[in-house]
């Protein structure tokens, strides 16, 4: 009988230890790592021969709510890196009142050349769901019963366009960055079936210093076409880098068609370079990150023959 009681005590101590470790991990993921922002920096040989170097700041997946003061201030501070071009690959909002806070976060960056596409969460507000469900189910299914957007995406887009940024949702355009011509094309979010690559299809202009492809979700069907059309640099977000990753294993799932090893960071995609942002934020209903710090990226572009 005494042996049974001792066994129960050991079991109780083990359960308490496991619960304590779990609580500590959750506190770290939701309080520390979620607000532990970092700027990744890369040098890429993608510009036309003879072009001057160019700095591109890539932002994505802020999922902003009005109370995220640390995130707002950190993004606003990125102006000190003096980017020649700012590209926002979507999912900026997570609340109906988040447009003004997001514009505050961009702050002086809005005075620089920029371009953007939308993600699903710029249009549809997040809903509560099992936060672990994404491990076995692509979140595309969450939008099948939602027809009318309930977030102020038009207001957000109008403000960025007013600042001179290019709207690349199923559109092409050109801009000047660092005194050089950039030819850009983009698609709306494939995650909710709004991408229309046929509307931007065709060879990228050969006389541009940079040929840029922009999309929210890095679906291979669109990446293949951007690469085939001659775009040098492809920028995407959506994956959150996995958001909850395992040490020595990395990303568990990507929530789209891209493979795990491309869930964040830089990789080659055929002849193009692909950068997938690990993103700045999280859904307010899954406010955790683990082994996957929130991030932006500064891409230092140099000529391909450098």
Compile the SSE list and pairings:
Elements: H1 2-32, E1 38-47, E2 54-59, H2 69-76, E3 85-88, H3 99-106, E4 114-116, H4 153-162, E5 166-167, E6 171-177, E7 180-186, E8 210-214, H5 220-228, E9 233-236, E10 245-246, E11 250-251, E12 265-269, E13 272-276, E14 295-303
Parallel strand pairs: 1-14, 2-3, 3-4, 4-5, 7-8, 8-9, 9-13
Antiparallel strand pairs: 2-14, 6-7, 10-11, 12-13
Unreliable spans are 14-22
The mean pLDDT is 90
**DSSP, total strands:** 14
Helical fraction equals 10-25%
Order of helices and strands: HEEHEHEHEEEEHEEEEEE
The largest sheet is: 6 strands, mixed
In words, what does this structure look like?
The chain is 22% helix and 23% strand. The chain is built from five helices and 14 strands. The strands form three sheets. It has a six-stranded mixed beta sheet, covered by helices on one side. It starts with a helix and ends with a strand. Residues 14-22 have low confidence and may be disordered.
Keywords:
306 residues, six-stranded mixed β-sheet, alpha/beta, globular, 14 strands
Can you describe this structure in just a few lines?
The protein is of the alpha/beta class and 306 residues long. The protein has helices spanning 2-32, 69-76, 99-106, 153-162, 220-228, and strands spanning 38-47, 54-59, 85-88, 114-116, 166-167, 171-177, 180-186, 210-214, 233-236, 245-246, 250-251, 265-269, 272-276, 295-303. It has five helices and 14 strands.
């Amino acid at each position: 009988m005494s042996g049974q009681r001792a066994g129960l005590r050991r079991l109780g101590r083990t359960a308490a230890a496991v619960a304590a470790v779990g609580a500590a991990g959750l506190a770290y993921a939701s309080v520390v790592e979620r607000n532990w922002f970092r700027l990744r920096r890369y040098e890429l040989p993608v510009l036309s021969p003879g072009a001057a170097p160019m700095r591109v700041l890539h932002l994505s997946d802020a999922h902003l709510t009005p109370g995220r003061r640390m995130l707002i201030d950190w993004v606003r501070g990125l102006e000190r890196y003096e980017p020649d071009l700012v590209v926002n690959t979507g999912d900026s909002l997570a609340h109906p009142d988040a447009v003004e806070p997001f514009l505050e976060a961009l702050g002086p960056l809005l005075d620089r050349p920029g371009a953007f596409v939308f993600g699903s969460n710029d249009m549809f507000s997040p809903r509560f769901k099992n936060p672990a469900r994404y491990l076995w189910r692509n979140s595309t299914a969450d939008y099948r019963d939602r027809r009318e957007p309930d977030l102020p995406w038009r207001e957000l887009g109008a403000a960025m366009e007013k600042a001179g940024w290019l709207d690349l949702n199923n559109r092409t355009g050109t801009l000047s960055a660092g005194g050089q011509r950039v030819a850009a094309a983009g698609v709306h979010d494939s995650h909710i079936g709004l991408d229309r690559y046929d509307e931007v299809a065709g060879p990228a202009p050969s006389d541009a210093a940079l040929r840029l492809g922009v999309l929210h979700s890095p679906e291979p069907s669109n990446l293949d076409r951007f690469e085939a059309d001659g775009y040098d640099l492809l920028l995407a977000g959506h994956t959150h880098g996995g958001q909850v990753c395992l040490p020595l294993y990395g990303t568990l799932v990507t929530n789209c068609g891209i493979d795990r090893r491309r869930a964040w960071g830089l990789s080659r995609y055929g002849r193009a370079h692909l950068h997938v942002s690990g993103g700045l934020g999280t859904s307010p209903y899954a406010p955790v990150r683990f082994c996957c710090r929130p991030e932006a990226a500064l891409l230092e572009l140099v000529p391909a023959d450098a």
